[in-house]
């Protein structure tokens, strides 16, 4: 049980740190700020967390804690730095965070090399690409790097486990 709590706190802390870094990049680095403001990088992080989790239940918890931490870290940093942000972004990212366990649930199925896993894997790639196009006027070069990384992770044979 203590090991689980450590991982819960670790993923929450990593999410907070990621949110802080993302907001600071928004302020101080236009290019990196753009990358970390888009959905594709957060999909990649969620897929990595899910694929390296030891069970579907833990994947759902880990991804949720990471997303909530990211959201909290980002907007607390925005407040502390008196940064501008829009209400619709808060709503969008909150909805994304609340649904992140559902996304992790389905992403877990990509570990199976059956038709369902393959369809979900392709679905993740399509959603990532479409989010880049529809929401952020992409794709840009980094979207292709993220897509290739996702494809590698989703279709590779050997899996590593985060216990």
Give keywords.
163 residues; mainly alpha; 7 helices; 81% helix
Question: Gist?
Answer:
By secondary structure, the protein is mostly helical. It has seven helices and no strands. The termini are close together.
Describe what you observe in this structure.
With 163 residues, the chain is mainly alpha-helical. The chain has one domain. The protein is 81% helix and 0% strand. The protein contains seven helices and no strands. It has helices at residues 2-28, 30-37, 39-51, 56-80, 87-108, 115-136, 141-155. The protein is globular and about 50 Å long. The termini are close together. The model has no long low-confidence stretch (mean pLDDT 90).
| Helix-strand sequence | HHHHHHH
Overall geometry comes to globular
Share of helical residues: over 70%
N→C terminal distance: 12 Å
Computed CA radius of gyration, to the nearest angstrom: 16 Å
Distinct helical segment count: 7
Percentage of residues in DSSP E strands: under 5%
Poorly predicted regions are none
- Average pLDDT, all residues: 90
Count of structural domains: 1
Which structural class matches the secondary elements?
mainly alpha
Largest sheet: none
Q: How many strand elements? A: 0
Topology:
Blueprint: H1 2-28, H2 30-37, H3 39-51, H4 56-80, H5 87-108, H6 115-136, H7 141-155
Helix pairs in contact: 1-2, 1-4, 3-4, 3-5, 3-7, 4-5, 6-7
């Amino acid at each position: 049980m203590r090991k689980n709590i450590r991982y819960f706190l670790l993923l929450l802390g990593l999410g907070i740190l990621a949110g802080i870094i993302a907001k600071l990049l928004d302020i101080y680095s236009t290019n990196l700020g753009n990358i970390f403001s888009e959905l594709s990088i957060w999909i990649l992080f969620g897929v990595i967390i899910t694929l390296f989790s030891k069970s579907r239940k833990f994947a759902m918890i880990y991804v949720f804690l990471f997303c909530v931490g990211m959201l909290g870290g980002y907007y607390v940093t925005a407040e502390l730095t008196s940064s501008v942000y829009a209400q619709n972004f808060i709503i969008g990212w909150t909805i994304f965070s609340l649904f992140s366990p559902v996304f992790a649930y389905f992403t877990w199925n990509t570990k199976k090399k059956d038709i369902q896993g393959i369809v979900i894997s392709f679905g993740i790639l399509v959603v990532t690409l479409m989010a880049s196009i529809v929401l952020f006027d992409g794709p840009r070069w980094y979207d292709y790097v993220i897509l290739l990384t996702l494809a590698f992770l989703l279709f590779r044979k050997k899996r590593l486990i985060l216990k």
